[in-house]
Amino acid sequence: MQISIVNGPNLNLLGVREKSIYGAQSFETYFEELKKAFPSVDLQYFQSNHEGELIDYLHKIGFSQKGVVLNAGAFTHTSVALADAIAAIETPVLEVHISNIYAREAFRHHSYLTKNCVGIISGLGLTGYKLGVQYLLDNK
């Protein structure tokens, strides 16, 4: 069974950028921990700073995987195209944010994606990804 973790723009800089918000651990290091936590799951990881590449990846996996844990970064608040891609696929998508988007700038309080996702986890740090994977295993 496959579940994809998909990260959007600037999340390739985790562990380096704004450590007070996003922490000091790289996502690659965390992903290795995540794979150990779910040894029976074929976890895939994809990150891109480009909206079209994220859409193409969702189209590619969106009819064959158990689920997607998606942190679209800033595209969450701007991308109708990414929301449409989520709506177009059959694979359930769970939206995740490392920081609490509702405790940040007002423009971050709106997500174009949420209405097409099975749920949202916001503000629990990297643990949100683990909770998202567990939810997809338990519910979809």
From TrEMBL:
Subunit description? Homododecamer.
Q: Where is the active site?
A: 22 (proton acceptor), 97 (proton donor)
Q: Entry's Pfam families? A: DHquinase_II
Q: What's its job?
A: Catalyzes a trans-dehydration via an enolate intermediate.
Superkingdom of origin: Bacteria
Tell me the pathway: Metabolic intermediate biosynthesis; chorismate biosynthesis; chorismate from D-erythrose 4-phosphate and phosphoenolpyruvate: step 3/7
The cross-references to HAMAP family, in alphabetical order and at most eight, read: AroQ (MF_00169)
Transition state stabilizer, annotated site positions:
17
Q: Which reaction does it catalyse?
A: 3-dehydroquinate = 3-dehydroshikimate + H2O
Q: What InterPro entries is this protein classified in?
A: DHquinase_II (IPR001874), DHquinase_II_CS (IPR018509), DHquinase_II_sf (IPR036441)
- For the ligand (substrate), the binding residues are 71, 77, 84, 98-99, 108
Q: Which GO terms describe its molecular function?
A: 3-dehydroquinate dehydratase activity
At the top of the EC hierarchy, this enzyme's class is lyase
* Gene name for this UniProt entry: aroQ
What is the protein name for this chain? 3-dehydroquinate dehydratase
Q: Which UniProt keywords apply?
A: Amino-acid biosynthesis, Aromatic amino acid biosynthesis, Lyase
User: What EC number(s) does the entry state?
Assistant: 4.2.1.10
Similarity-based family: Belongs to the type-II 3-dehydroquinase family.
